[in-house]
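Query structure, 432 tokens:
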């Protein structure tokens, strides 16, 4: 699952001249997903009727699809930019579209924009204007052509970052000369759960009931073991099309649960790419009529939770003698365990129980090849004496800007007292 063993060939997003092909993601591709759901659960929803309408070449829905997939590139230089930002809960994603006069290659070419913060829980009604600053751009797999997705962060009209703008602080950390010199790599493993609409129960599970025990579902294949593969595969291709540095996917231990990995990414890119990948997943599940959940423990009981394991390394960790640097980083992480846990996602205490491949939320531990620890070090890293560490504590709903920034701050910028360092060295445990 960890995907941080090789450097990214290109770690800064660069927009290339797009193909004039129509958007690769049309709703026709969802017929198999929705029809399977209708047959399995006999759900009455608009998605069911949409699929049957698409079977008619002359139907109204089909004509709408033709317009949705219309390539306007030969007729105008104008493009559509979808501005994306994080809402008031810190996990919900919002977006709106605007016309840009010509194609762009960098976020700096785009104008700032405002939105009604009182409708997203981010500003009072009497002073509701919040300003979006474009920060990163990706190709739009839904509209195709030269159209783009724009990751933004949010500020007051006076230029102050609003409380839910976690990107601002992370960008400051990654622009620090000490951090930049270490070229921090991140490989983030985003787990998520697909839910049936209306009932909020995992995809493939009998409504109100349970499937067989965990075991055959992880990386499994077959109608009785894999639920939602079309969504995972569609998301994979959408990420590649957009320019997201996605490195893999797999079915997870709990049925109806999946994972994708992004990285290795350098610095702030890790957060930008995860947020854009999450947005694509929200849009794809929207089209498929399935609900996306990032809850760290969507089903109570003897089921795995959902995490967002974060693989991390610095230049010093990747060079000869790097294992000693990794151990020093782990020492620092042990001393700031509470600070990290408090920032690693809501509801994480329901997941970090010491069971189901997790460590206890109250106790810091590290080990080689041990998935029951707070920090895992791979066998290859131990053998080669250099490499990376995996922080297994972040929840699936964590903010990647917060987690990546905090890891860099704790391991590069923060220095404990000698007394605290000596005490921690005696306390932290190694589990192999």
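Result returned for the query:
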């Amino acid at each position: 699952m960890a995907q941080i063993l090789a450097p990214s060939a290109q770690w800064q997003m660069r927009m290339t001249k797009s193909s004039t092909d129509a958007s690769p993601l049309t709703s026709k591709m969802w017929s198999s997903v929705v029809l399977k759901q209708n047959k399995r659960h006999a759900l009455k929803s608009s998605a069911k009727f949409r699929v049957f309408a698409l079977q008619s070449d002359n139907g109204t829905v089909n004509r709408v699809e033709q317009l949705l997939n219309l390539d306007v590139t030969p007729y105008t230089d104008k493009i559509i930019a979808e501005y994306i930002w994080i809402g008031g809960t810190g996990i919900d994603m919002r977006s709106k579209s605007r016309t840009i006069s010509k194609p762009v290659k960098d976020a700096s070419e785009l104008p700032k924009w405002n939105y009604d913060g009182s409708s997203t829980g981010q500003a009072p009604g009497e002073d509701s204007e919040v300003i979006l600053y474009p920060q990163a751009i990706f190709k739009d797999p839904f509209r195709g052509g030269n159209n783009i997705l724009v990751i933004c962060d949010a500020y007051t009209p006076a230029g102050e970052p609003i409380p839910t703008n976690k990107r601002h602080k992370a960008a400051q950390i990654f622009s620090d000369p000490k951090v930049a010199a270490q070229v921090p790599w991140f490989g983030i493993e985003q787990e998520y759960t697909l839910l049936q609409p209306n009932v909020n129960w995992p995809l493939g599970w009998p409504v109100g009931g349970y499937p067989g025990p965990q075991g055959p579902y992880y990386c499994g294949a077959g109608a009785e073991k894999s639920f939602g593969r079309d969504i995972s595969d569609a998301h994979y291709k959408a990420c590649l099309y957009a320019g997201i540095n996605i490195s893999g996917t797999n079915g997870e231990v709990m049925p109806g649960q999946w994972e994708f990995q992004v990285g290795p990414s350098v610095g702030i890119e890790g957060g930008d790419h995860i947020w854009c990948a999450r947005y694509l997943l929200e849009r794809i599940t929207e089209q498929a009529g399935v609900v996306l959940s990032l809850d760290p423990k969507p089903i109570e009981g003897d089921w795995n939770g959902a995490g967002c394991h974060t693989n991390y390394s610095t230049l010093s960790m990747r060079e000869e003698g790097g294992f000693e640097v990794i151990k020093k980083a782990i020492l620092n992480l042990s001393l700031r365990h509470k600070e990290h846990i408090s920032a690693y996602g809501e509801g994480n205490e329901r997941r970090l129980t010491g069971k189901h491949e997790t460590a206890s939320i109250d106790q810091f531990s590290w080990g080689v090849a041990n998935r029951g620890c707070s920090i895992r070090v791979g066998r290859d890293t131990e053998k080669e004496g250099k490499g990376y560490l995996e922080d297994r504590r972040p929840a699936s709903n964590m903010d990647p800007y917060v987690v990546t920034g905090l890891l860099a701050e704790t391991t590069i910028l923060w220095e404990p007292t000698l007394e605290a360092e000596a005490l921690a060295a005696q306390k932290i445990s190694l589990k192999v």
